[in-house]
Amino acid sequence: MKTFKTFLALALMLALPGLTLAQGAPTTPRLTNNPSLDVVVTNPRPVLSFFNAHGGRAPLTYEMQLSPNPEFSGQGLISYQGLAQEPGRVSAKRVAKGDELKDKSRYWWRVRAVDAAGRKGPWAQTRFFVDTASDDRFMGLVRVYPEQILASSGFNPENVYDLDDPGQSTFWQSAPYHEKDQWLVLDLGQIRTISRIWMLSAISGKNGWLKDFAWQTSVDGVNWRDVPGGRLENNDTFRNILDIAPTTARFWRLYIRDWHGYCAQINALCLYSPGKPPVPSPPPGKYVLVVGDQMNGYTFTQLARRIQGLGLGLQVLQVPHFQMSLELVRSLKPQPVAIIFSGNNAGYQNLPMFEYNGNYEIIRECKLPILGICCGHQLTAMAYGLTFARSMGWSDITALDPPPWKHDIAILKKDPLFQGVPDPFVAPEVHGWAVYTLPAHYEALARSKYLQSLRRTDKMLYGVQFHPEIDAPYNQAQAVLVNFLKMALQKAP
Predict the structure, then answer these.
(1) Of the listed 355, 361, 429, 469, which one is catalytic?
(2) What fold, for 21-130?
(3) Amino acid 281: pLDDT
(4) Largest CA distance in the chain
């Protein structure tokens, strides 16, 4: 009988692989959501999101700790226990009232799962910065593009400046196991003043991170000198923002003395010059200001075509997000009848998020009618806290034909935005992030498995996660764009 029971147990383990996992402690949660490593959070009560653990005996709960030191000890330690695992792939905890984090500080945070039997999984740990004023105003900088990029070794140095949406996934790598120092030279084509440098290195793992590097300048491309404030030693991150004393030169060099792993890697970088972009000239007649940077993506370009093709007599002025500011909007003569923030398919964790400061200014302070679509919808919440949106852990992609499993979107509250839209309805979606926390004076208008639409209660500002502008046969939400623009036209002088 004992032999038979042993055989039966073995057969069950082979037939049900998850059974053996369920008998052990839970796995480690993943902290690659929001905030991930060295992200700058902009609210003293950030939302800390993580990907759920697996295994153990259900239901799982979580322990979370925050600390101003990596030892998680002493004054300032914050602990939460018994956090329920949320449905789906992601759970989160917002820092509680009374536990507000200190501004201009670095925090370490960690989380682990606890199963119903009391077994605790391993801690997952990362860190972030708190700077609540870092997104208050337009960055006061303009992108500087080099005319030529040269590298000491390796291939495709131009990849470090492909600043389109998916560009952060491509990179330059130095020759493997190269014993000599490595470098990248940027010829700006003319003398330019630089005051900020943003860098992204090896986003998929530590191999390739820069350990010891310095930015240098030259007047002739031959003789180099270090830039004050441009040297980092013992660097332990893959993202860097270097604010340097304004330095003027035509030739700039990233000189890499040491790195992790077998080669140095740069996924993206950008130089910034102090200043403001020129104010664009609006088209004649009534127009909509469309803000975005997806110059090669259909959600941006189709949005402009859709607005112009609705028969409302509206033209479009398109401006990339990194040039936008409240001052620029106020300088437009005549004023637009509305502002629409478009979609964007890049991951926020790997973007220079300070480029969105001008967008946040507009969302918080501009009185013109505003509609955020997809990324723009998320920005309307992130303007009050970067972590108020998070990755869902999966992508909702229904841009062409809705799959059979497509969930409907339920309207939670009657609003003129949804006039003529059935309840529930189906609409195209192309995203992997969603709004998690509503700021003050915001309310939810529609949702599916996550928030699909919001509005501010004190001014005309809407956000929709879906894409009303996509011309697809199954899109039951195309009236949303028309309704918004008609309301905006009624408010226009």
Answers:
(1) 469
(2) Immunoglobulin-like (2.60.40)
(3) 96
(4) 89
Tokens 């600043």, residue located: 163
287-491 carries CATH number 3.40.710.10: no
Phi-psi region of 465 (alpha: psi -120 to 50; beta: other; left: phi over 0): alpha
Q: What are phi and psi of 138, to 5 degrees?
A: -45, 140
Please identify every stretch of the chain with a pLDDT value under 70, giving residue numbers as ranges: 1-23, 165-167, 293-301, 346, 399-407
86: annotated active-site residue: no
Which residue of the set 263, 270, 374, 375 is catalytic? 374
Rounded Cα distance, 493 and 490, in Å: 8
Q: Which amino acid is at 166?
A: P
Peptide bond into 146 cis (omega under 30): no
How many Cα neighbours within 13 Å face the side chain of 24? 12
**String of b and e for 263-277 (b: at least 16 CB within 10 Å)?**
bbbbbbbbbbbeebb
Has 467 been annotated as catalytic?
yes
**Taking the C-alpha atoms of 416, 419, 423 and 425 in order, what is their torsion angle to the nearest 10 degrees?**
-110
Give the pLDDT confidence score for residue 13 in this predicted structure: 42
**pLDDT at residue 166 in the model:** 65
Fold of 141-274: Jelly Rolls (2.60.120)
- Using DSSP bridges, classify how beta strands 287-291 and 315-319 pair: parallel, antiparallel or unpaired: parallel
Condensed to tens digits (0 to 9), the pLDDT of residues 287-315 reads 999 998 654 444 556 788 999 999 999 99
Note whether 83 and 113 are within 8 A (CB): no
pLDDT, tens digit, 9 for 90 and up, residues 45-81: 999 999 999 999 999 999 999 999 999 999 999 999 9
Catalytic site residue 374? yes
What is the pLDDT at residue 205?
Answer: 87
Cα(44)–Cα(131) distance, rounded to whole angstroms? 8
Contact 158, 171 (CB under 8 A): no
Q: What is the pLDDT of residue 400?
A: 64
Determine which one of 260, 321, 377, 467 is catalytic.
467
Main-chain dihedrals φ then ψ at residue 242, nearest 5 degrees: -110, 110
- SS3 sequence of 32-65: CCCCCCCEEECCCCCEEEEECCCCCCCCCEEEEE
Segments making up each domain of the chain, as ranges: 21-130, 141-274, 287-491
Give pLDDT, residue 131: 98
CA dihedral of 207, 213, 218, 224, whole degrees rounded to 10: -120
Sheet with 315-319, side-by-side order of all strands: 315-319, 287-291, 338-341, 370-373, 461-464, 451-456, 442-447, 410-411
Among the listed residues 191, 240, 238, 190, the one whose alpha carbon sits nearest the alpha carbon of residue 215 = 240
